[in-house]
Amino acid sequence: MSQFFEVHPQNPQPRLLKQTAQILHDGGVVAVPTDSSYALVCHLDDKAAVEQLRRIRQVDDKHHLTLLCRDLSELASYARVDNRQYRILKLGTPGPYTFILEATKEVPRRVSHPSRRTIGLRVPEHKVLQELLAVFGQPLIGTTLIPPGETEPLNDAQEIRERLQKQVQAVLDAGACPMEPTTVVDLSGDEPLLIRHGRGDPAKLGL
What we know:
Layout: E1 3-6, H1 14-25, E2 30-32, E3 39-43, H2 47-57, E4 66-68, H3 72-75, H4 83-92, E5 97-102, E6 118-122, H5 127-136, E7 140-144, H6 157-164, E8 170-173, E9 183-186, E10 193-196
Parallel strand pairs: 1-8, 2-8, 4-6, 5-9
Antiparallel strand pairs: 2-3, 3-7, 4-7, 5-6, 9-10
Helix pairs in contact: 1-5
């Protein structure tokens, strides 16, 4: 049975965030709210947790997982970023954008794309997730919570608990999310490439 934490969307209770962070440190997979939709997250360096996260979504190693960072300074430790890329990143963070970038050696090979050595990175604009990242003390690896065979992410925390209670260790309930995926931009090539038009306006990035 997964644990269920109801947190205030603007003033999340520190005690519940600490409990959630401990579950993640102990190798748990947790459903969390973001500024796009609910997501599954786990510890970047926990191989078993990452494998469980992929199993729940039924995606293989070619599916880009995303590193959720508190800010751009944290992001720079995990991706190679030049001045051109950094200017675009500044325009889209924090916010509903996912950027595909070349991963540094800080990123375990098992969570980056197997042939391209790239990783998705983003700085979410969601109070609860930002506070959880601060308590956890490092980025989390995550993926949108879309059940296998479905096209829409789950958006009701109670439903997430009912459907995934044997697969996730905790659900962090902060109410409904916008239910629109992030805009995905590939910055790993010579020119920025819009992969998916989502909640974030590409014009804000000059695309």
